[in-house]
Amino acid sequence: MAEYNADGHELAGGLRYPWPQAQCSGEWREVADGLWWLRMPLPYRLDHINLYLLRHGDGWVVVDTGMNTEQTRAAWEQVFVGLFAGQPVLAVICTHYHSDHAGVAAWLAERYRCPVYMTASEYRSLYVTVPAGQAPGWDFHDFHAKAGFSGEQIDELYRLIQSGHFRPLHFNSYRRLQDGDRLPIGNRQWRVVVGRGHSPEHACLYAEDGSVLIAGDQVLPRITPTVGVHATEPEADPLRDWLASLEHLRRLPDSVLVLPAHERPFYHLHARLDQLQAHHQAQLSRLLASCDEPRSALELMAVLFPKLSGRFDELMALGETLAHANYLMAEGLLVRELHQGRHRYRRGTPGQPAAAPGPTATLTIPGSQPAALQESPCDRQEQQ
Ligand SMILES: [Zn+2]
Fold it and tell me: Superfamily assignment of 3-130+169-281 in CATH?
């Protein structure tokens, strides 16, 4: 039974939602002066993304674009003649490179001959994240085999991520955003607030009058944004970046209206940051508690994510599991060994520091053991 306050705002899960009813895909709604919320379809169980449209003089600035699908383009055509009434798009801002956000940025930019703004790491990620080629490369294979997948399953995973839906259209130029940049758009001064961990350099837009935060995927209500380690960077420690980014966002006022890329706009930013932090701390504890005996990555994945349906879920869940494992290894609380071609994880020995992935890591060349290099417990080949 939903609870409402005197203004008709729904109260749920420690958050306050000014608009209780979700909009249908393709519909828009003004959520602040000169700022519209547009819902676009996604072909997943998470069936929508929220884009935000900012009026600027006689035109529009678009924040995020939707996935590269016919349905997205058709919904945009309605916006061009409806809300925009023929006025042009002056600029596109992508919070990050993920396909539901940057999917048709190139199409909008081409149509209106307007610039695309995003951070440098996000722009470059558009070009490197999805591996090219008909068959998985050795490193893609190696990463998933060590996690516990069979050769057949790895081929299946590869075909899945090669699917066209995952590929935003490319564009050959962009304008760079950096943390702290200021953007005067419409009647507001916006500040770029960068978050990391979900994607390399995710840009949120904070209105400096304290009224609104366009949060992209950095802060979502109800849903926990994925923080994953994938084949492109097996030793990454994105959870550390993610937790630091939650603290970075905590400097913004709790009273701000948060405009997320999924679900509904909400109030109580700080409560949501607390919840996200608590979620990851609980996952870290759960993972560690199950490592008294050596466990493979897939076994740990089943502990953290007992209900999974389909390979795509598994791909995301594996990435998330490894993000937590790599974090714990960097803390010296978990040790990774290679056993019969698969990684196994077990609790670290108290008092024995573990070499860590991340900026202070000892470089360990697999298979070599020069006397000057200390053995890394993170990647130790177990004696057979
Ligand atoms: Zn995302």
Answer: Ribonuclease Z/Hydroxyacylglutathione hydrolase-like (3.60.15.10)
pLDDT for the residue 127: 84
Residue in the block written with tokens 């009647």: 187
> Which stretches of the chain are assigned E, i.e. beta strand?
3-4, 10-12, 15-17, 28-32, 35-41, 48-56, 59-63, 89-93, 116-119, 175-177, 182-185, 188-195, 202-207, 212-216, 257-260, 295-296, 334-339, 342-347, 380-381
Segment 296-313 mean pLDDT: 92
Is residue 145's pLDDT more than 90? yes
pTM, two decimals, is 0.89
CA of 44 to the centre of ligand 1 (A): 14
Ligand 1 mean position to 18 CA, how many Å?
24
> What's the residue count for the chain?
384
CATH number of 293-381: 1.10.10.10
